[in-house]
Design a protein that fits this description.
Length: 422
């Protein structure tokens, strides 16, 4: 038997194990090394541990798979819940955008209707304002209310904010922030639209107010002017409403709404202008002007010493120191009722102005009209001279009311005030 090499473990020599196998005449022996024993033990241990692990896996596999499936199901459910919430939020945003869009369309329609109404009002106001400016030359020119600030074709177009179509299929976090951004944009656009509509609405309301204020001011000016002319005419004994066939009615204004208020104000302005036109017509036909404005007066109305006899006598008119051959002009509109030689007046023209008022132009050298002629203010009726009972060339001017002579200077002074209002 061969001697094996000794091994030392922690300084102690240990002999290797020898296995002897005898079979008949044959004898075999094996030397078992310690490292070989260690390898066999390790292999057996590894096999045992592997068997145990495999058995444990087979036993616990179903539980692990079930837990994993449950966890994945919970995660998927959470994602689906968040996506459903985002879809609901998108639906709310879309619904609000549709409502906002409908509201914007309604507001735009209302604005366009108001603009159209302002345009119609302007078309109605233009002729009456031109008429008012012609009747009231001293008044400030009327502003064009509708066409300066708002045109009918100027529309406000606001595009609604729409949610992205792929929002539901996007990642949850990205979709959440995108939805918040879309919501903020929608609210921002809605606020901007509201501010824009409010500004336009205020502008249109201002225009409407200016229209009504302008009409009211013109009506008040026309009434004041007509009243002033009427007072001056009444002061000299004329009836300023003699050609006004309207029935006397009145009362405080109680407006029903904006439209009726505007119509009422326009009607009031129209009535005021009609009255002013009538009063002006009466004033222009009345003998209120000076027949010789650039010439001095040589003899006034009233008792004076007769130039031929030297005795006190009534002078029924006013004498103007006008040279021979100057044109004598009518002091108001009327109809010629006398034209020719008339006693002490010499060549004389008498004009009937209506309402009992008449004027006479005496001592003319030539008569330029005939009975029945219609004359206007400033029309030539003759040429000055010294015909009849006269001491020299001049113009004798009389004003008579219902056949009674009145002081022409009082009429002329009132006419100066009236002329400032015509």
């Amino acid at each position: 038997m061969q001697q094996t090499r000794a091994s030392a473990v922690f300084g102690k020599r240990r002999e290797p194990h020898t296995v002897i196998i005898a079979r008949g005449d044959q004898i075999r022996h094996f030397t078992v090394r310690p490292w070989l024993v260690a390898c066999l033990g390790s292999a057996l241990s590894a096999v045992a541990i592997g068997y145990l692990l495999a058995t444990s896996y087979l036993v616990l596999r179903d539980d692990l798979i079930g837990a994993s499936i449950a966890r994945q199901a919970r995660v998927q459910q959470d994602y689906e819940d968040r996506i459903a919430a985002l879809r609901a939020q998108v639906d709310r945003i879309t619904s609000r955008q549709l409502l906002d869009q409908q509201l914007m369309e309604t507001k735009v329609s209302e604005l366009l209707q108001r603009q159209s109404q302002l345009s119609r009002r302007h078309g109605r106001l233009s002729p009456i304002l031109e008429r008012a400016e012609s009747e009231l030359p001293a008044a400030a020119p009327a502003a064009a209310p509708a066409e300066e600030a708002a045109k009918p074709d100027q529309r406000v177009e606001i595009a609604p904010t729409t949610a992205p179509a792929s929002l539901a299929s996007a990642a949850p976090d990205f979709a959440f922030w995108t939805t918040r951004s879309a919501t903020a944009d929608a609210l921002s656009n809605a606020d901007k639209a509201d501010r824009l509509f409010s500004a336009i609405n205020n502008s249109l309301r201002t225009i409407e107010t200016e229209q009504i204020d302008r009409v009211t001011t013109l009506a008040a000016d026309a009434d004041r002017t007509a009243d002033a002319i009427a007072d001056a005419l009444e002061a000299i004994g004329l009836d300023p409403d003699r050609q006004d066939g309207k029935t006397g009615i009145g009362g405080p204004l109680i407006a029903l709404d904006d439209k009726s208020s505007f119509d009422t104000r326009v009607r009031e302005l129209d009535e005021a202008l009609a009255r002013l036109e009538n009063v002006k017509k009466v004033a222009l036909s009345a003998p209120i002007h000076n027949p010789a404005p650039s010439f001095a007066i040589s003899s006034t109305f009233g008792v004076r010493r007769d130039p031929l006899l030297g005795t006190p006598a009534l002078h029924a008119g006013v004498d103007f120191r006008v040279p021979y051959g100057n044109v004598a002009r009518a002091t108001g509109a009327g109809t010629v009722v006398k034209a020719g030689w008339y006693g002490g007046y010499g060549r004389m023209v008498e004009v009937d102005h209506g309402d009992g008022m008449a004027t006479r132009y005496g001592h003319l050298s030539k008569v330029l009209v005939k009975v029945g002629d219609r004359v206007e203010y400033g029309s030539a009726v003759g040429q000055t001279g010294s015909s009849g009972r006269s001491t020299g060339p001049h113009l004798h001017y009389e004003v008579r009311r219902n056949g009674v002579a009145i002081d022409p200077l009082r009429i002329i002074r009132a006419g100066k005030k009236i002329a400032e209002l015509l």
